[in-house]
Amino acid sequence: MDVLKTLQTQLATFASERDWDQFHTPKNLAMALSGEVGELVERFQWLTSEQSERDALSDEDIRAIEEEMADVLLYLLRLADRLRVDMAAASRNKLRLNAEKYPIAEAKGNAVKYSRRDK
């Protein structure tokens, strides 16, 4: 079993043991996910690009960021579980679509959003 599926199973068990499935509706999970993303973003608010790099952050900052990242991942996986989405397959598919949308020859070193309408 892959890591994401294992985590999904562990989360489902964790929620079930606490009778939280009644609260873990897709809507509620999406809202909780949004809140956790906000908490992650808050860790970087007002930092310069240089200050946001790992080498510039304290060990305490890194630990806090890791916890927020884990919260985001766990809520996302719980949402995927409730919607029966295979996140590994969905991610592989999205990566393939992005490779088609952003070919290396046109996107390399370019931060401008690629649009096929410009062709």
Short description:
This protein has 119 residues and is mainly α. It contains five helices and no strands. The chain has one domain (3-16, 25-109): Helix Hairpins.
What is the topological layout?
Blueprint: H1 3-17, H2 26-44, H3 59-83, H4 87-101, H5 104-107
Shape field: globular
- Approximate strand percentage: under 5%
**Strand count, sense and closure of the main sheet?**
none
Supply the CATH architecture. Answer: Orthogonal Bundle
The overall number of domains is 1
Number of strands: 0
What is the residue-averaged pLDDT? 93
Can you describe what's shown?
The chain has 119 residues and is mainly alpha-helical. The chain has one domain: MazG-like (Helix Hairpins, Orthogonal Bundle). It is 66% helix and 0% strand. It has helices at 3-17, 26-44, 59-83, 87-101, 104-107. Helix 1 (3-17) packs across helix 3 (59-83) and helix 2 (26-44) packs antiparallel against helix 3. The longest helix is centred in the middle third of the chain and has 25 residues, at 59-83. The radius of gyration is 18 Å and the shape is globular. The N and C termini lie far apart (43 Å). The model has no long low-confidence stretch (mean pLDDT 93).
Supply database-style keywords.
119 residues; mainly alpha; Helix Hairpins; 0% strand
